[in-house]
Specification:
Number of domains: 1
Structural class: mainly beta
Helix content: under 10%
Radius of gyration: 16 Å
Number of strands: 9
Distance between the termini: 45 Å
Order of helices and strands: HEEEEEEEEE
């Protein structure tokens, strides 16, 4: 795998919410990238929730998130993200539990990057009743098109914090 592929995959992160901090490491090079909530505009385009019925607040869900990047910074190869799609599923009790997503990120030159993220969301309730979620996980880049063709792989380790939301 070339350093070029590893760095390009570094900015493809399409995890649900921001800010995000992560680093990409290869044997020859290191590319660090961080971003804040102003980078992506996220919309849940589909979401289906089923109550499990064993304990209060236990739900399984499938979802799709679309993001656009009007203020994206170029990645290590000088390319910006145009959009990304994440499709995933979660198994939450009161918004805490495991989540898995499968992502497709489209770069400004038309290349695509494919990834799979696995992690855990932890939700706490603030004094004013708002919920704050923190996601911690690992993203494996599984391939792509163009300069990110199949076999390209990198890793993300980090966290993101969801903006407060009402119950």
């Amino acid at each position: 795998m070339s350093n070029k592929i590893v760095c390009m995959c570094g900015l493809s992160l399409g995890l649900m919410l921001s800010p995000v901090g992560f680093s990409i490491v290869s044997a020859q090079d290191k590319c660090k990238v961080s971003e804040g909530p102003e980078v992506a505009k996220s919309t849940y385009t589909q979401q289906h929730v089923l109550d499990v019925g064993d304990v209060p607040g236990h739900q399984i869900r499938i979802f799709e998130v679309h993001r656009t990047y009007p203020n994206d910074k170029p990645n290590c190869e000088g390319l910006k993200r145009i959009e990304s799609w994440d499709r995933g599923y979660s198994n939450y009790i009161d918004w805490t539990g495991p989540v898995t997503t499968f992502g497709v990120t489209v770069l400004e030159n038309g290349d695509k990057i494919f990834d799979q993220s696995v992690g855990t969301s932890q939700t706490t309730i603030g004094p004013d009743g708002t919920k704050n979620s923190t996601f911690t996980g690992v993203t494996r880049y599984t391939g792509g098109t163009g300069t990110c063709d199949a076999g390209a792989e990198g890793r993300y380790r980090g966290f993101h914090r969801r903006r407060a939301f009402s119950a």
